[in-house]
Amino acid sequence: MNRFFIVALIATLWSSGALHAQDIITLKNGVEKKVIVLRVTQIEVVYNSYDDPQGIVNVYQKSQVAMITYKDGRKEVFDPEYTPQQQSTPQQQSTPQQQSTPQQQSNAQQQSTTQQQSNTQQQYENQQQSNTQPQYRNQQQYDNPQPMPQEHTPTRKVQYGVKGGFNLASEMASDGRNSAQTNPRVGIHAGCFMRLPIRGKFDFQPELIYSMQGGRYKVEGYTYTDKLDYINLPFIFKFYVWRRRLSIDFGPQLGYMISAKVSRGGDSVNFYDFDEVRKFDASLALGLSFQLTDEIDLGLRSIAGLINIFKADYYYTNSTSQLSIAFRF
Fold first, then answer.
1. What are the DSSP calls for 143-175, one per residue?
2. Tens-digit pLDDT profile for residues 199-253
3. Rounded to an integer, what distance in angstroms lies between the CA atom of residue 320 and that of residue 168?
4. Domain definitions of the chain by residue range
5. Check whether domain 155-328 has CATH 1.25.40.10, yes or no
6. pTM > 0.85: yes or no
């Protein structure tokens, strides 16, 4: 199961570069920017740069934006009076043609020629004015908006949450040359966590988790189940590979055993106080998380034990796969 999980993780990383698609923000001054729109609120448009989709989050005030063209062709207009091209139409062109004398036609032709020359000169002056330094500075201001303050970005503040889900736990046994794995014990895990923004694409997430671990195996036709329950302290680093929704989670985990039983059928024996049992455990965790909404995450994690949990000829370690759902607030 761990080998399949690692292959799926590599495939996800390989394909994450293909998930970007561009939107276009058109400002009221006519400047167009290729971006990835994250959300639109009542007062602002939040986006990432198309060239650096995992970079810093930026924002435009809606009063600066005329229109957004999304990657699917859909358009959202914020300024009803905005038109992509606004050109003045000579008044003479809107006046219906009337019958006139040859002298009047000659005079009208001269006036039309003069008006066209005047319009051409006016368009040239407008074009020159649009390229002057003041507008360039204004365009620079729009091309390089100030980074979005943290108080406007909920995903960058300290967050707290609860999580829970299912375990598939087993025990790895090895004598240094050969190794074997028990059948999985199905259990649950539940706990709480705190998410701290570090910088850039990284967050740090310490957790406090109750976890049901152990494994199942057969001896002389009888099925035994090791029921090992732990309080674990994962120290998880989150690296975001797609916007701030898909992340790779990795880090160490410390654990303390709070219960140890072995059962066969309806009978069980408590061996928690045996000298052969080590209470402390240490592991490495690797997984993926996907943010479904601003408050809900789904996670898949594989945890490999590093410490021999029994003092025996064989080397026994915990191996656990977890599927969890988290609620942040």
1. HSPPBPPGGG-GGGS-EEEEEEEEEEEEEEEE-
2. 889 999 999 999 999 999 999 889 999 999 999 999 999 999 998 899 999 999 9
3. 6
4. 21-83+133-150, 155-328
5. no
6. no
